Amino acid sequence: TCSKNSVRIENGFLSESAFTYPLNKQTEYKCKPGYVTADESCDRPVFEKARAKSDGTWFRLNDRLDYECLDGYENRDGRTAGSIVCGQDGWSDKAACYERECTVPEMDTYLNAYPRKETFKVGDVLKFSCSQGRIMVGADSVQCYHFGWSPKLPACKEGNVKSCAPPPPLLNGKGKEMHKEEYAHNEVVEYACNPRFLMKGSHKIQCVDGEWTALPVCIEEERICEDIPDIDHGDVKPSVPPYHHGDSVEFSCREAFAMIGPRFITCISGEWTQPPQCIATDELKKCKGSKLFLPDGELAHKIEYDHNTNKSYQCRGKSELKHSICINGKWDPKVTCKE
């Protein structure tokens, strides 16, 4: 006979209640929660034109693995992402993606397309012409993208087409050779962005039966600021480059020095704003007083006030008090009752 106590199963146990077993008797065992047998697990699958969304090289039964397709590819369901599940017989499916394709679109009866193919790969271009003397309205070619054809397919129009008024202005850009009052159907105008601006969209627009196609957009180029400027007798608080537009860093002055100017500087279009100064406290200039100061009154203009002194004053005929601070010899804001 065999004793249940003589069997040791790592991370598992015999599931039957008997304690002794006769010779050749079979029994069953189970794994502890969170454990599986070696034949009930899956190794990391081979990815075809895809990548996993999570790390891991070994997966338990019923574990799910999410993946995403590389750019320009999709899985058999026509999606750019999917998931597979670890089962007793291995993974539920292949983690595979296939190159996206465009099929021949529905076209105007009089529109001819070249080249003639059943399917097109991403990046392929389809060119058009009209038959029976008709006039093309729209772009003369379209391109296959991962989302389909773009721009919209043209149509073939019978008879006259309208001309266009002068093309619209481009914000942060300008058109090239725009000197005419009228532009013929299919005529093209080219645009360029101002320095430090990048163009999003086609740099050309076309007159299509009296209407211009969509304008591009000029977007300000993101410029990174270089090293933070040094200031004498001061330090910058730790920060991590690169410094993009809108990022700020903070300064501090060493002991016995006072800060004059803003504590923070900001990266604006690739340039840092003006940094502060650290001036020895015994070198700070005093500010001359004003007759407007309360409660010093007439004597105030004879008094000199230390750096960082805050004074209040009231203008004639006004109920509210104004305030000003002495900053290294100058009042901020300036002491005045002029509007």
From TrEMBL:
Occurrences of domain Sushi (ranges): 100-158, 162-220, 223-280
GO cellular-component term (any): extracellular space
Key words of the record: Disulfide bond, Signal, Sushi
Disulfide bonds: 164-207
GO terms for biological process, alphabetical: complement activation
InterPro entries cross-referenced by the UniProt entry: ComplSys_Reg/VirEntry_Med, Sushi/SCR/CCP_sf, Sushi_SCR_CCP_dom
Pfam families noted in UniProt: Sushi
Record bears the keyword Lipid metabolism: no
SUPFAM superfamilies in the record: Complement control module/SCR domain (SSF57535)
GO MF term (any one): complement component C3b binding
The UniProt record lists the keyword Transferase: no
Protein name according to UniProt: CFH
Origin species: Cervus elaphus hippelaphus
Lineage of origin: Eukaryota, Metazoa, Chordata, Craniata, Vertebrata
